[in-house]
Amino acid sequence: MNMNQVQNEVLYIEDDEINLALMRHIFLKKLPSLKLIEATTARKGIEIAKERKLSLILLDIGLPDQDGFTALKEIKSCMVQEPTPVWAVSASVFESDIKNGLNAGFEKYITKPYDIQKIVKLIKNTVMVGTINTN
Questions:
Q1: Three-class DSSP labels, 73-100
Q2: Fewer Cβ close by (within 10 Å): the C or N end of the chain?
Q3: Is the CB of residue 56 less than 8 Å from the CB of residue 87?
Q4: Which of 36, 39, 41, 19 is nearest to 116 (CA)?
Q5: pLDDT tens digits for 67-105?
Q6: Which segments within the chain are labelled E, that is strand?
């Protein structure tokens, strides 16, 4: 990795401490080249999304201060120049919930509990494309 290259940052907006701890562990052990930034409210996550150039945003649907769909609209409205992929993260696993999430503008819909291998592969394929040498 080029020393001048900015580390890819992934924002995880999640209010549940257990889910945050699991994601921290996933990044530490499986995605150490990425920096995980955390926000426990939609409001804080939106502030961070406006201030930083992020590679990916993981957004919980069921946040206490604002639902993920409303937060998504705010995040998307402030990223006109370089849109960042935003993935829904939810315990709702019904096909209709997933369809609603994708129709609302989430690029992916990740269900809890996480399939760790799948989420690692998806994040690597999304964030690390073009940042690693394939030689």
A1: HHHHHCCCCCCCCEEEEECCCCHHHHHH
A2: C
A3: yes
A4: 19
A5: 999 999 999 998 766 789 999 999 998 999 999 999 999
A6: 9-13, 35-39, 56-60, 86-90, 108-111
